[in-house]
Design a protein that fits this description.
Protocatechuate 4,5-dioxygenase, Chain B; 10 helices; about 400 residues; three-stranded mixed beta sheet; about 35% helix; single chain; alpha/beta; nine-stranded mixed beta sheet
Length: about 400
């Protein structure tokens, strides 16, 4: 049972093109970013054949069975099997996800990577508060490592016991969110332990599927946050909760926001939101600019990104959704960001706290001056919570 991957609403598995360290190649999220159409991934072509109909019926029935009986059945097996055969209740097996992008997207050598992260964090200036959540880019470190350090500089390790990592799916189509079946995530700086208890709680809501192991190894959005987490947390004992985020119509944004608001209320939890900003150029099928303006294209991109950053800083999910509809900006982590905004709003309404989101750094992989150029933008920001 545990090895079967289920998705809500039938099969949606489609692999995406290869990527480089700046971001996805030949792909951008759907241009219609209305609540009903938002998607981080390619969609299955329609097929009305009888074979497809029965396949969907079978897979929907299988998904319903697993969501209903999977966890109780795993508990039953844990009760009757000898200890050497027991499986983890959250994800059916004790596996370690490899550091699959080490050596290409970031340094695989422990000493060199640690030295590099230390340099970036030291250059990020003083800590200005205690992060409850942060937005960090997920490109190759040579492009975005310096920017990511500004957000991670605000993490106070002594206050954190658990790190939720929400990253968009670049590899496979996904409806809603999925959690890992692994017990550890490997980094050159040491293994990070997955929080099985929280995974069980999330799975029990019936709003979380399980990541496919092969897709999980291929995905980079979560992995690129891990070395920074390992670095800033040091030797402190803590756990991680990796969450892969797919398509989220408006009502599901609120559903996941309400679920995660419960955990955001706990100051021992840190949320890391993985997202790059504008993917501009023909290879992303997104290259809007004012041809008659004297403002360079890269500055026009900056202005568009900073409008989105300002919308996020309002901590108003509707403002960010409106911005996405208006600009169609290819912010790949928009759905993880919207979950954070929904959770923060729910938390703010139910508690006597003042919330502040502040962006600290912004860069681009390339200063676009010609319509044949391309670039990916990176921004880092932090959510601070102040009790009244």
């Amino acid at each position: 049972i545990g090895r079967l991957k289920t998705t809500r609403g039938g099969p949606t598995r489609r692999r995406r093109p290869a990527q480089d360290q700046r971001g996805p190649l030949q792909y951008h999220p759907r241009r219609d970013t209305s609540n009903a159409k938002q998607s981080n991934c390619l969609t299955e072509p329609s097929n009305h054949s009888l074979h497809t109909f029965f396949l969907r019926v079978f897979q929907n029935s299988r998904a319903l069975f697993l969501r209903t009986f999977g966890l109780p059945f795993a508990r039953y097996l844990n009760f009757i099997l000898p200890s050497e055969f027991k499986m983890s209740l959250n994800g059916f097996g004790e596996h370690t996800r490899s550091a699959s992008h080490a050596g290409s997207w970031y340094n695989a050598n422990q000493r060199d990577l640690d030295r590099q992260l230390t340099k970036w964090l030291d250059n990020a200036g003083p800590r200005i508060g205690t992060a409850r959540a942060l937005i960090s880019p997920h490109a190759g470190y040579s492009y975005c490592g310096e920017t990511a350090a500004y957000a991670f500089k605000q993490v106070v390790s002594s206050a954190v016991e658990r790190v939720f990592i929400l990253g968009p799916s670049h590899v496979v189509a996904l409806n809603g969110c999925a959690i890992t079946t692994c017990s550890k995530y490997r980094t050159p700086l040491g293994d990070l332990i997955v929080d099985h208890k929280i995974n069980e709680e999330l799975r029990a809501t019936r709003h979380f599927d399980l990541m496919d192991r092969r897709d999980e190894e291929s995905e980079h959005s979560i992995e690129m946050q891990l070395p920074f987490i390992a670095k800033v947390m040091g030797s402190k004992r803590y756990t991680i909760v990796p969450v892969l985020v797919g398509s989220l119509p408006g009502s599901r944004q609120q559903t996941y926001g309400n679920i995660f608001a419960h955990y955001m209320e706990d100051p021992r939890n840190l949320f890391v939101i993985s997202s790059d900003f504008c993917h501009w150029g023909e290879r992303f099928s997104f290259s809007p600019y004012d041809r008659h303006s004297s403002i360079p294209i890269y500055e026009q991109i900056t202005n568009m990104d900073k409008q989105g950053m300002s919308a996020i800083e309002t901590l108003n999910p509707a403002a960010f959704n409106d911005y996405l509809k208006k600009t169609q900006n290819t912010i790949c982590g928009r759905n993880p960001i919207l979950i954070m905004l929904q959770a923060a709003e729910h938390f703010r309404i139910s508690n006597n706290h003042t919330h502040e989101f502040r962006f600290l750094h912004y860069t681009q992989s390339n200063k676009v001056r010609s319509s044949v150029d391309s670039s990916v933008s990176y921004a880092s920001g932090v959510l601070f919570v102040h009790p009244n």
